[in-house]
Specification:
Length: about 160
């Protein structure tokens, strides 16, 4: 590519995850339906630049749960390169979170359990070789958020 083409190409588009703000806020999280899976942070989709390439848009879904700013840069690069093993790991992480959310919702609504009881029950049945897990304190906080989001549906 010539220098002229490189300077004047329009390949960078506004990031659809953060809407060009370089930061994913609660509104973005709700818009992308990633409550309980993301927190406000610099945008991992555009590396906090507010712009992405068309290639990025074609390789990685905007709402891909696993692509977050707290991953090592090498892991983020693998996702952006379309590494099958890394994408599968991300898919498994998303399934883990979905199942954990369903588990917490079930025990809250059907068994009238609180977050601590749900967390203790979950940890007592968790496989020691589980691919993903949470520490008790973080698990309780996560379940409290699940319950918080579930309460309006029950009223």
């Amino acid at each position: 590519m010539t220098i002229f083409k490189k300077l004047f190409r329009k390949s960078d588009l506004e990031c659809p995850r953060c809407l060009g703000k370089a930061f994913v806020d609660w509104d973005d999280i709700k818009r992308l339906n990633r409550q309980l899976k993301w927190v406000p942070a610099p945008c991992a989709y555009c590396y906090g630049k507010g712009k992405v390439s068309e290639e990025m848009l074609s390789k990685v879904p905007v709402d891909y749960t696993y692509l977050t700013i707290d991953l090592p840069e090498s892991e983020m690069d693998k996702i952006k390169e379309g590494n099958k093993e890394t994408l599968e790991k991300g898919r498994q992480r998303d399934l883990f979170l979905d199942n954990l959310i369903s588990y917490a919702e079930h025990h809250y609504t059907n068994n009238k359990m609180d977050a601590i009881s749900i967390a203790d029950l979950y940890l007592s049945t968790e496989d020691e070789t589980a691919l993903f897990s949470l520490e008790r304190k973080n698990l309780i906080q996560f379940i409290e958020k699940v319950i918080e989001l579930k309460k309006p549906e029950l009223n």
